[in-house]
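User: What would this chain look like folded?
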Amino acid sequence: MISILVCDDHEIVRRGLRSYLETEGDFTVVGEAADGEQAVRLASELKPDVILMDLVMPGVDGVEATRRIVAADPKACVVVLTSFSDDSRVLPALKAGARSYLLKDVAAEELGQSIRRAYRGESVLHPVAAQRVLREMTAPKGSEPTERELEVLLLVAQGLSNQEIGERLFITERTVKAHVTSLLAKLGLSDRTQLAIYAHTHGLVK
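Assistant: Here's the prediction, encoded as structure tokens.
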């Protein structure tokens, strides 16, 4: 069972998340927090496997709560679930130590899969959030990677081969190679190892 702490200042949101999560056979909600201070305290007391963190909460916000939680336990798995994808929130949350960044318009099934992936140590970024990160970090020498190229980059960083990436994204291995070549050109890198290092050093994958 994956234990989850739900942190959101809206009771109806917490109830909705609990209702969905507990219909899944491998999730159990061990606590709820209505603000950042409570989130930090419950994370320390309950030591959940995954912490679902809203960013806009009274008092201590989600970014600061994430920073405190990860500082106390570097292995803590914080998954941001918010309505906001602007630069002022995405980058600070990831720098604070959040493993994943999702928006509240995510489908229920996708949320469940994202939680499982985060629990396994993978980073999951909503495409809009990921583009914010890349726009911040990408050198001006090339245009921004597309959403598909970003998906390929994340999978390269996780150590998947071109064939495995193709199977995961339902595209041909030749198409994967084309995306990798495009990424190398846009990011000014020379090989897939540098792509993986780039993704890790810029917080796209932890």
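Strands lie at 2-7, 27-33, 50-53, 78-82, 100-103. If you want, I can go into more detail on any region.
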